[in-house]
């Protein structure tokens, strides 16, 4: 799977280990920055990351910022993106299984590299449920997005 990964300056250091781990799982990585710890605006990176997902260039996205919250807010502004902040294993897989999340956001000030790896593994291994109830709900999300 091709995965796009982005971070702001607060997530830069953790992003390096995230990229390495995702590649070790056999996935191809598109790194949209940040490429150092110079302050950047997370919405700019989130927009680049989300664009790779919505264009189909990447199957899923990962964003790393201080808390994951700002990145999630920014990514969710892009039509076609369903981003979630995940700091526990259950949320990391269930957000995909039940809500068809295509961008996971994690906070570098909240989790360390080991937990980040566990979250990423759960997220990337998860598949959207074939259950009618979850598909119906995600269709309602699409309708809400299109209605404004």
TrEMBL record:
The keyword Isomerase applies. One of its GO terms (molecular function) is intramolecular oxidoreductase activity, interconverting aldoses and ketoses. SUPFAM superfamilies: Ribose/Galactose isomerase RpiB/AlsB. Belongs to the LacAB/RpiB family. The lineage of its organism: Bacteria, Pseudomonadati, Pseudomonadota, Gammaproteobacteria, Oceanospirillales. GO terms for biological process: carbohydrate metabolic process. Pfam families: LacAB_rpiB. The active site is at 65 (proton acceptor), 98 (proton donor). It comes from Chromohalobacter israelensis (strain ATCC BAA-138 / DSM 3043 / CIP 106854 / NCIMB 13768 / 1H11). Keywords: Isomerase. It comes from the Bacteria. This is Sugar-phosphate isomerase, RpiB/LacA/LacB family.
